[in-house]
Design goal:
493 residues; alpha/beta; Nucleotidyltransferase, domain 5; Hypothetical protein af1432; 3 domains; 6-stranded mixed sheet; 5-stranded mixed sheet; 23 helices; 14 strands
């Protein structure tokens, strides 16, 4: 994939209780794909519960880390650098002194977030990726746990609690029974959590992401993409219980989980278990987007924020890689007569597939279908569940006439039911016919029409037009069979 030229670099430094991270985004895009991303573990909150002060070693390391990040941002010509401090700095007696020292040494202005502000930004990060999110966002860090309701794009009740992993480990003495009683005591005071019963819990934060990797390994899920990985809450509780009782040696075998995360995973699993018990949701979903992405989203113009994140990404892919970037919208309209009763969700996925259907023309012909499939399966989409991701990938795979017996394709197809697989074949076959007819030229496609006529599929083309002197029988026949028509016809108009 080509890389889009940076238009409006926006930098965000997240001073967390355990780690500090710099992300630089292109604020000219709807989607917060990091152009640069670096993290340093400083452990600012170590000992905070007993001393009320920041970890002295972490204090100095954090000052140096933020200094490096500020220098990098200036070298990258980042015009806007937001430096945000969370629970450790907010709660420590020497938090204000830390902020003043950063301003003195490195000329950076730090905004120390309240617990409510931190919760709201985490929820906005989820909404940035999943505008239709409805449920309770749970953001677990090193110093605090934030819970906030989301519905219809709006933020609801929120609460912040001193249940971050570093502070909880200290306050419980790493005793599981004590930790459970501390967690339950805090959760029991939040009466509005009952509103989340039967809904979705959205898990945000590095510890949750590490847990998601373990969940994926335990369930042998076909995709290792973390964002929007979801499972039934009852299944999640069974796996959480297993993880909470795993030995360090067993956890060490799971790919993709850093060693620094391993020691805190059993406690993270225990926090998740108590949350699931208290809220009793139907579904647990993981979001890789949180506070930093919420700050990014907050800064976007209102018009950009209203864009659909999935379609925005697909449109950008088409613009960067397609031969005819505007062809996707025309394909969508051309195919409409074949899909009269689809849901809004199905329409969105079909539109996404149309937009990216010509993005892989430059791949080697022998591997084009496979490359298109794998890229669509693994690209950093937003606002798309794993089954929807598989549907887009399979549709484009069919468009390039890939062999569905490919083992990687078969695994991903396992995310779809038979009805969804047939729909992908229909969409992919229609895309194949359109590109066969026109070579991707939008002006030509507008001169043709697909018409369902009883049990027959009719393709109308301009009579005698040189551009349509071809034999599309094979592609048309494939589409008619995929659409369950008894016959097909091609006629001039």
């Amino acid at each position: 994939m080509k890389i889009k030229r940076i238009l409006e670099p926006l930098g965000i430094v997240d001073i967390g209780s355990n780690s500090i991270r710099l992300c630089v985004y292109d604020a000219g895009n709807r989607v917060p794909v990091p152009l640069f991303n670096e993290k340093a573990v400083c452990g600012l909150a170590l000992g905070l519960g007993s001393t009320g002060r920041l970890n002295p070693e972490g204090f100095e390391q954090a000052l140096a880390t933020v200094g490096r990040f500020a220098a990098l941002a200036r070298a990258m010509e980042v015009k806007e650098l937001d430096v945000l401090a969370t629970a450790a700095v907010r709660d420590a007696d020497d938090g204000p002194a830390f902020v003043r020292e950063l301003a003195r040494r490195h000329r950076v202005q730090v905004k120390t977030l309240s617990g409510g502000q931190e919760a709201c930004l985490a929820a906005m990060g989820v909404l940035c990726g999943t505008p239709e999110a409805e449920g309770i966002v749970c953001d677990l860090g090193g110093g605090s746990l934030e819970l906030i309701g989301v519905k219809d794009g709006q933020l609801g009740d929120h609460v912040t609690m001193p249940l971050g992993l570093l502070r909880l480990a200290e306050s419980s003495g790493d005793d599981r029974a004590v930790a459970a009683s501390i967690i339950d005591a805090h959760l029991s005071r939040v009466d509005w959590l009952s509103a989340g019963e039967g809904g979705t819990v959205y898990a945000v934060g590095g510890a949750w992401r590490a847990l998601a990797r373990l969940f994926i390994a335990q369930t042998r899920h076909p995709l290792t993409v973390l964002d929007n990985f979801a499972l039934d809450a009852r299944d999640a509780r069974q796996i959480v219980d297993l993880i909470a009782n795993q030995s360090r040696r067993s956890l060490d075998k799971v790919p993709g989980v850093s060693r620094k995360r391993l020691t805190s995973l059993p406690l993270a699993a225990q926090v998740m278990d108590r949350i699931l018990v208290r809220i009793n949701p139907h579904r647990l979903a993981f979001s890789i987007y949180g506070m930093r992405e919420g700050q990014f989203f907050k800064r976007l113009p209102e018009k950009t924020r209203r864009e659909n994140p999935l379609l925005s990404v697909c449109r950008q892919i088409a613009q960067m890689n397609g031969r005819f970037p505007t062809h996707g919208d025309e394909l969508m309209r051309w195919m409409d007569p074949l899909f009269p009763d689809e849901t809004a969700q199905q329409t969105r996925i079909r539109h996404a597939a149309c937009l990216v259907s010509d993005a892989f023309w430059g791949e080697h012909p022998d591997y084009r279908a496979e490359q298109a499939f794998l890229r669509m399966l693994r690209l950093p989409f937003m606002g798309v569940e794993h089954a929807e991701r598989a549907a887009i990938a399979l549709t484009v795979f069919v468009r390039y006439q890939g062999d569905e017996e490919n083992p990687q394709v078969q695994r991903a197809i396992g995310l779809l039911d038979e009805t969804a697989v047939r729909r992908c074949r229909k969409m992919g076959s229609a895309l194949r016919l359109a590109h066969t007819l026109t070579g991707g030229a939008t002006a030509l496609l507008k001169r043709t029409r697909l018409i369902p006529d009883g049990r027959a599929l009719v393709l109308e083309v301009p009579a005698g037009a040189p551009a349509f002197v071809l034999d599309p029988d094979r592609a048309l026949d494939r589409l008619a069979k995929a659409m369950d028509f008894d016959s097909w016809a091609m006629r001039g108009i």
